[in-house]
């Protein structure tokens, strides 16, 4: 009986994801949102809401805008408000403004401070306002009035390009036919593609093998079965 090759236990090391403008792949699914965000300072409003599901590229597009505009990146609405109130013409990026535990009161005052000080604010969220969020009525009305840059689910070309980028971020050298094999079978969401690449990286390190067709097939099977 053939013996299975010993598995290694890979360390969970951080990955240096590249978030520059040259690394952002523009396609039909994100073209409109990219165009609106990067049009700064010629925005239709001083505040723009960038929406999209988890893993859709909001952080990357936000980082591009922050780099171009010299914006400060805030960890929460309270920190963003402090920065807005201490700056003459603040420019701020606030990620996940609809996240669990987000301070709606601070966000409401932040929107007012940005307008009063004639600054600019890019907010990212998973979606536009609903009946459940925001709960603060005055904030909800202001949020509904904001221009929205919406990131749509990726098409085939975008999914393939993101797959290649994420593999490259992890320095995984994968043959073109294996990339095509993965691209045709992976779920069409950027979050799912990211999870797939993470799983491929772990399995490659554990087996001490490059990502070939067999390894890729095994990882996909486990994901489909919900065991990854």
Task: Present the secondary structure layout.
Blueprint: H1 31-37, E1 47-51, H2 58-69, E2 72-74, H3 77-85, E3 91-94, H4 104-116, E4 120-125, H5 137-144, E5 148-150, H6 156-169, H7 176-185, H8 190-207, H9 213-225
Parallel strand pairs: 1-4, 1-5, 2-3, 3-4
Helix pairs in contact: 3-4, 6-7, 6-8, 7-9, 8-9
Helical coverage, percent range: 40-55%
Mean pLDDT: 89
Strand order of the largest sheet: 2-3-4-1-5
Low-confidence stretches: 1-5, 7-16
Domain Hda lid: 156-211
InterPro entries: Hda_lid (IPR055199), P-loop_NTPase (IPR027417)
Protein name: Hda lid domain-containing protein
Give an account of the 3D structure.
The structure is a single chain. The protein has helices spanning 31-37, 58-69, 77-85, 104-116, 137-144, 156-169, 176-185, 190-207, 213-225, and strands at residues 47-51, 72-74, 91-94, 120-125, 148-150. The protein contains nine helices and five strands; from the N terminus they run H-E-H-E-H-E-H-E-H-E-H-H-H-H. Helix 6 (156-169) packs parallel to helix 8. With 228 residues, it is α/β, with parallel strands linked by helices. The model is unreliable at 1-5 and 7-16 (pLDDT under 50).
């Amino acid at each position: 009986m053939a013996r299975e090759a010993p598995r290694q236990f890979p360390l969970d090391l951080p990955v240096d994801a590249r978030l520059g403008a040259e690394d952002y792949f523009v396609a039909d699914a994100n073209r409109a949102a990219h165009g609106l965000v990067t049009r700064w300072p010629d925005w239709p409003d001083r505040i723009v809401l960038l929406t999209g599901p988890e893993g859709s590229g909001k952080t990357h597009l936000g980082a591009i805008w922050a780099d171009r505009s010299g914006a400060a990146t805030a960890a929460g609405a309270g920190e963003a408000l402090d920065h807005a109130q201490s700056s003459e013409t603040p420019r701020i990026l606030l990620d996940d403004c609809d996240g669990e535990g987000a301070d709606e009161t601070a966000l409401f005052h932040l929107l007012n401070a940005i307008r009063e000080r004639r600054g600019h604010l890019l907010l990212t969220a998973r979606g536009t306002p609903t009946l459940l969020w925001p709960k603060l009525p005055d904030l909800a009305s202001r949020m509904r009035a904001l221009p929205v840059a919406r990131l749509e689910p990726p098409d085939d070309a975008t999914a393939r390009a993101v797959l290649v980028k994420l593999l490259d971020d992890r320095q995984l050298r994968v043959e073109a036919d294996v990339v095509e094999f993965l691209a045709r079978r992976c779920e069409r969401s950027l979050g799912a593609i990211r999870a797939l690449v993470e799983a491929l990286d772990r399995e490659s390190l554990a087996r001490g093998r490059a990502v070939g067709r067999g390894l890729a097939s095994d990882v996909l099977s486990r994901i489909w079965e919900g065991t990854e």
